[in-house]
Amino acid sequence: LDAVTALNKQFDKRPEDKARVLAHKGSTHGLVLIEQFFVKLVRVPAYEFKLIYLKFREEAPTQLERMSKHINDLLESVQVILNNEQLPGILHLLCLLYNSITGKTIPGLHFDSLLSVLSTRTPKQNTTLAHVLCHLLEEQYPTLLNIFDNQILLKLKDLSAIKYIPIYIDIRLLFTRYKQLNTTLRELQQQLIILPEHIKVTLIELQSVFTRLFDDENKLKKYEKDLSNYFCL
Q1: Is 121 helix (H, G, I), strand (E, B) or coil?
Q2: Which residues form the FH2 domain (predicted)?
């Protein structure tokens, strides 16, 4: 498919040769091999559309599946954070410790400042706020340590590297190609050009995938606000 697509693009760059091949009638005898190939190719109904469709069908499902997984992981991660029973208690305790040591009265901690807060030095030598927090959790709040039983929560560091905005830039690029295919398909149908039914079926199935992904984008935007409120951003 890649080879045929590449050859077709080269063919488009030579309009004189393309016009000659399109005008050729009858036997391909006497033509060079590449010309024979293109004469047969252009006789396939809607051949350019079919090449574009086949290329899209080859690339889009795998890419959409990969991006859908990333989006689902992000949605699940947000739910894990917002619904976790131990995390609010740990953050509240950390905030109290920070205010106690620094003399401040902040109501909550920014998410991007957590590591800095945990590294805050205490009056005790070689002891940070993280050391004090761990000691308190172990001695007085052992139930909060159940947070480490949540395997998904432990994976949040890796999942935090996933950025949904670049993902949706790629999704929209695919969606643009998808819309162009749909537009061309309708034009060909209006011209009464018969096309394989599976093309229409595949495009309908992909529509549901794009619809779900754009619905998920709205969820992510809402969750982004929810997380901002959660971490006092």
Answers
A1: strand
A2: 1-233
pLDDT at residue 210, as a whole number? 98
CB 118 within 8 A of CB 132: no
- Least confident range of 136-140, 162-166, 188-192, 217-221: 136-140
Name the pTM for this structure. Answer: 0.72
* DSSP per position, 181-231: HHHHHHHHHHTT----HHHHHHHHHHHHHHHHHHHHHHHHHHHHHHHHHHT
Distances (CA, A) of 205 to 56, 57, 158: 14, 11, 31
CB 11 within 8 A of CB 38: yes
The SS3 assignment for 56 reads helix
Query: Quick one: pLDDT at residue 68?
Result: 97
